[in-house]
């Protein structure tokens, strides 16, 4: 286990009482505004001393309130990337990067300065001052600086929240590469499910200061009971696919376990493995194979769970030859279709509604 956290902390009117483990890979901390994400990550970083608890990183004790141990931030071997990059405005990019090495241990590291500059595409920026960088470039420098401290884990608190959609799309592939290049565990705070769906391996769902659920991302994102917590519009499963063809009409064929699906504008190469997020609201369910339908994506599926919501909606868990899918339909439709667990039916995915940002390189 990379990181193990079990802490309590009280603010006036808010109590954080959270325990979770972050294994290797990217662990996303997700929750509504005020759920306690930043408080939690600040406690891990050593920027906040919680009232009580224990935090370990690869067996190293960072905090043990019972034993009176609380390492200062610079001794924790954590790299922290904030939403606002916090670069030094008077220093060049190169000097900002070098600042990251201040507390870096001298022992050998898999990450050389050149590797980090290369991975994040920083070489053309080295002589510039932060005010001459775009938002995405600024965040790449901040990530580079954090990596140069040779951390044992990277903490990222809403690193893309200040970026517009285009910049966000530019930087996500860097984060995907970072994830695998250095084999560095990452604790990633975000309330954007599209980012988390692309990057995370493990999801920790925070609600009102406690961990509501935690586990592998695929399991949690396809759990119909979690739809209200994840947000009815954004909830959706992720599936792995292989790119098999780019057709001249702009559609790309992706092979998944249940067959082929066709999506527009996929950036990956033929043969690449990609992760696709299919939002529950973009999946329609039919009892019989639909005919004369404009959608080209029709998959045979089995109903795994039917979760009626408090309102007019229902979330349906589906199995597509081993891949979990989620559909959000009206409770009335679920009732009219007579959906029951074990029932075979068809899932219809509307190709054009799968956003570009929902398709990510899956490099692991
Ligand atoms: N220094 C503080 N003093 C008092 N209350 C605080 C302090 N810091 C945070 N809180 C409160 O603790 C709760 C959790 O805040 P926190 O910033 O951890 O949430 P969050 O999930 O990161 O939210 P967001 O997504 O909006 O950043 C909120 O109710 C907040 O008002």
Automatic annotation (TrEMBL):
Entry superkingdom: Bacteria
Record-annotated ABC transporter domain positions: 2-233
Enzyme class per UniProt: hydrolase
GO-annotated cellular components: membrane
Assigned EC number: 3.6.3.29
UniProt entry tagged with the keyword Transport: yes
Keywords, ordered alphabetically: ATP-binding, Cell inner membrane, Cell membrane, Hydrolase, Membrane, Molybdenum, Nucleotide-binding, Translocase, Transport
InterPro entries hit by this protein: AAA+_ATPase, ABC_transporter-like_ATP-bd, Mo/tungstate-bd_C_term_dom, ModC_ABC_ATP-bd, Molybdenum_import_ModC, Mop_domain, P-loop_NTPase, Transp-assoc_OB_typ1
Pfam families for the chain: ABC_tran, TOBE
The protein's name: Molybdenum import ATP-binding protein ModC
Species this chain originates from: Pseudosulfitobacter pseudonitzschiae
Lineage: Bacteria, Pseudomonadati, Pseudomonadota, Alphaproteobacteria, Rhodobacterales
Gene from which the chain derives: modC
